[in-house]
């Protein structure tokens, strides 16, 4: 199995590492001023940028939405080349110059993260405060993406492994993202999508500052003590809150259960798994992609299901041992 780890920073860089996932990372708008051309709605958080050893580069000026044709036309053109666009060859020939098809796919997946922010209720007086304004069936339609060709299947909640005395007795879990699945006709295969947001609550900010490294130990059969990740992100990924009706299970357990359910339902079809996250959400997306690959859960009767992570402004997640996996 192989894992390609890549970035769009002030330059686009990529390195080769071992595992079974592909990551495409967009640096924060603070580092790349014209990043906001892609997704201005995401230009609100400024996390620590990721780092990697460069193997090729491209000017970010070419990575603009204006460089891409209409998204509907692009999706149609991507269908016969979707594995290549998803990174099966580490985007060989698509980076310098940046392919309009790849550019538009980055924008397309970024819009699914933007959809989250549009649906997130930030009104303290609302009964849905810090949750979603809409039901699963209507969210994409309400945010103007009703024709995207995806159906939301589950809302995902996460619980920071932090207790604040003033919040004793209150539910610590918050809506952090959703899973969705495409119609096969829309993108040329059955795409399983996970979209995850960035930091919002005070406990999530505290989790972000918990930068000490701790062994991931996600595979009980092979804990790999040399693989360490930031404790705050790992806690957010693996903690639960039994007092909350939406999150008696951890973010990890919710994601694994739902993605495996969708995989089983469409096991006779050609599948892909795409994880898109912004800021803190990109860290969770990367942890989940690593988790799926290390557990071998993307193995299917028809072969290995590709996993791709689109990371927008993602911070560092783990140590060298993590990167090498």
Automatic annotation (TrEMBL):
<feature type="domain" description="Fungal lipase-type">
    <location>
        <begin position="194"/>
        <end position="324"/>
    </location>
</feature>
<keyword id="KW-0150">Chloroplast</keyword>
<comment type="similarity">
    <text>Belongs to the AB hydrolase superfamily. Lipase family.</text>
</comment>
<protein>
    <submittedName>
        <fullName>Galactolipase DONGLE, chloroplastic</fullName>
    </submittedName>
</protein>
<dbReference type="InterPro" id="IPR029058">
    <property type="entry name" value="AB_hydrolase_fold"/>
</dbReference>
<keyword id="KW-0732">Signal</keyword>
<dbReference type="InterPro" id="IPR002921">
    <property type="entry name" value="Fungal_lipase-type"/>
</dbReference>
<keyword id="KW-0809">Transit peptide</keyword>
<feature type="signal peptide">
    <location>
        <begin position="1"/>
        <end position="19"/>
    </location>
</feature>
<dbReference type="GO" id="GO:0008970">
    <property type="term" value="F:phospholipase A1 activity"/>
</dbReference>
<dbReference type="Pfam" id="PF01764">
    <property type="entry name" value="Lipase_3"/>
</dbReference>
<dbReference type="GO" id="GO:0009507">
    <property type="term" value="C:chloroplast"/>
</dbReference>
<keyword id="KW-0378">Hydrolase</keyword>
<keyword id="KW-0442">Lipid degradation</keyword>
<keyword id="KW-0443">Lipid metabolism</keyword>
<keyword id="KW-0934">Plastid</keyword>
<dbReference type="GO" id="GO:0016042">
    <property type="term" value="P:lipid catabolic process"/>
</dbReference>
